[in-house]
């Protein structure tokens, strides 16, 4: 991909407080994630997410994150929260993921041997993109652990978001090494699960933008 003028998209995930959502939007984040996965310490009720959605700035995606939630649970979130993007971390198949009529990201667990890219494409033809996270299939995401970025297949046929253990300290390297479409972070910008740290959020965005200027000589000249 020609990365001149390219800007790595940033998603911050696992919000529980409207003030954190407002600050993330002011920092220029592209997506705000709300977690509905049962095992997560960041899990919120649809009613809470609905209230927090009001804090989103225009043109910022509200992302609803699930991990093997039931059809009715996802439907209820879609109805109440009106997310613009869904993110599935579990064993959901393409038919399930696309049945809500919204674009979705399917998580690829990088904690084990991954499917060949052409097979991923065949399994999830309806996915808007993939999200590469460090856990193994069946384990929870949001682990705060990185994986070996050199294992990312070169020929993924859709845009991908890089996740797993990203922090302000490694965001620059992550973007320059992996050149993802987007980065997604939860624990690396927190004081504790669900409680975001304003300074970490700001430094994370700064580091991604610094990397965007660095990855292409022409872009660097413009930055
Ligand atoms: O954030 C969670 O609690 C969570 C729970 C279940 C599945 C995914 C979860 N979060 C996602 O996990 C990755 C990486 O998170 P981290 O930065 O390593 O903490 C990211 O996509 C989160 O959206």
UniProtKB/TrEMBL annotation:
Keywords attached to this entry: Amino-acid biosynthesis, Aromatic amino acid biosynthesis, Isomerase, Tryptophan biosynthesis
Domain N-(5'phosphoribosyl) anthranilate isomerase (PRAI): start-end pairs: 11-206
Molecular function, one GO term: isomerase activity
Biological pathway: Amino-acid biosynthesis; L-tryptophan biosynthesis; L-tryptophan from chorismate: step 3/5
Keyword rRNA-binding found: no
Catalytic activity: N-(5-phospho-beta-D-ribosyl)anthranilate = 1-(2-carboxyphenylamino)-1-deoxy-D-ribulose 5-phosphate
InterPro entries given in the database record: Aldolase_TIM, PRAI_dom, RibuloseP-bd_barrel, TrpF_fam
Pfam families from the UniProt entry: PRAI (PF00697)
The enzyme's E.C. designation: 5.3.1.24
Top-level EC class as recorded in UniProt: isomerase
SUPFAM superfamilies: Ribulose-phoshate binding barrel
Classification via NCBIfam families: PRK01222.1-2, PRK01222.1-4
Family classification: Belongs to the TrpF family.
UniProt protein name: N-(5'-phosphoribosyl)anthranilate isomerase
Organism expressing this protein natively: Cognatilysobacter xinjiangensis
Name of the gene: trpF
